Amino acid sequence: MRRPVAFNLFFKDRGVFKYHRTSHDRRPHGAKQHLLKGGMKMSLKKSGCAVIISLFFLAIAFHFATPSPVSAELRLTLATSPMGGSWYPMAAGLADLFNKNIEGLTVTVEGTGGGSTNPKWLAAKKVEIALTTLDMFFKARDGERPYKKQYDLSAARSIILQHSSPSHWIVLKKSKIRSLKDLKGKRIAIGERGAAGNTRALWYLEVAGLSKDDVQLEYIGDDQAAGALKDGRIDAWVEFVGVPAPAVLNLATTTPVRFLNLTANEVSQLKKKWPYMVPTEVKAGTYKGQEEDFTGFGVTGCFMALDSVPEDIVYQMCKAIDANWEHLYTVKKGFRLWRFAADIETVSGQPLHPGALKFYKEKGLK
């Protein structure tokens, strides 16, 4: 007795067609067809097999003739900061905005080391779009410390300037320190060792005529620095962070503090040596007990894309951002300081992406 014959036809993404045949399907050559009562001819088993084979080839033709929706979809990776960093929720907000408003686009967020890592990832084309800080971008491009080589960033294109992280030079209100020059011989917290703020703090000291040998540097984070200043274990603390800075807010709530300003000559030197350091005016009353405005200088950032990203996609990104500012403000207050700026190419040192250029021309910015 012959065993039943069975096989499955597998079609990718179209399920499984099952066929089952037994030995009774075989008939002698030339066998008469059987008729049903009433004269209706009963289909032969081999006719059913022919139908199945026809369906098989039809399915194959349909499968290869139908374009795959996945192949038509563009996937981009957005480099941001570590998950606990201030950039991460901003990047997540942008990805969500783009995915909802740009058909056929899927943006995923990639947590990275932040401003010091993202230029390297753009250069290696590990990501297509990224949040950047321009001081680290320039240093990576030029092969300056902390980078050990030059990175080819010629394919990076500007889209929009991000918020800056302005300096907060903080002393106790009762302190006799009134200017940066008065910091000579003092204990200053400049952030955890290796942070980008370490270098920026030294730039400030340089324009004030001081070197790191003229002061005692303390490499501690913001919460530790706030406690140390309050307890008198340090004399000053510099923080490069968006306004308002949470750690500064907390300190000012319990401890009277003051903020140091640069002199006109120091501002001039800072701008000349590091043109990407941009000013942010922090209005009186931003922090408890703050009686006067102060101007903090910090490095602005730039949202960038590789030149391989399609022009229309970047154009739609710009349109989506511009149409949804109020929503983005609810994601992160720092979006209030993002701007489509006419001088973006001067500040970033990189040309506009063609898609962004189209948008800037429509807005009258170019």
In short:
The protein is of the alpha/beta class. It contains twelve helices and 14 strands. The protein has two domains: 74-163 and 300-362, Periplasmic binding protein-like II (D-Maltodextrin-Binding Protein, domain 2), CATH 3.40.190.10; 167-299, D-Maltodextrin-Binding Protein, domain 2, CATH 3.40.190.
Characteristics of this structure?
366 residues, alpha/beta, D-Maltodextrin-Binding Protein, domain 2, 2 domains, five-stranded mixed sheet, 14 strands, globular, disordered N terminus
Question: What does this protein look like?
Answer:
The protein has 12 helices and 14 strands. It is of the alpha/beta class and 366 residues long. The protein folds into 2 domains: 74-163 and 300-362, D-Maltodextrin-Binding Protein, domain 2; 167-299, D-Maltodextrin-Binding Protein, domain 2 (3-Layer(aba) Sandwich). The chain is globular, with a radius of gyration of 32 Å.
Query: Helix coverage percent of residues?
Result: 25-40%
Shape: globular
Q: Write down the domain tally.
A: 2
Quantity of strands, as a count: 14
**Assembly context of the chains:** single chain
Work out the strand percent. Answer: 15-25%
What letter string, H or E per element, gives the SSE order? EEHEHEHEHEEEHEHEHEHEEEHHHH
Query: Helical region count?
Result: 12
Any chance you could write out the topology, listing elements then pairs?
Layout: E1 5-10, E2 16-21, H1 45-65, E3 74-79, H2 87-101, E4 105-110, H3 118-123, E5 129-133, H4 134-142, E6 156-161, E7 167-172, E8 187-189, H5 196-207, E9 216-218, H6 222-231, E10 236-240, H7 246-254, E11 257-259, H8 264-273, E12 277-282, E13 294-299, E14 301-306, H9 311-323, H10 325-331, H11 344-348, H12 354-362
Parallel strand pairs: 3-4, 3-5, 8-9, 8-10
Antiparallel strand pairs: 1-2, 5-14, 6-14, 7-10, 7-11, 12-13
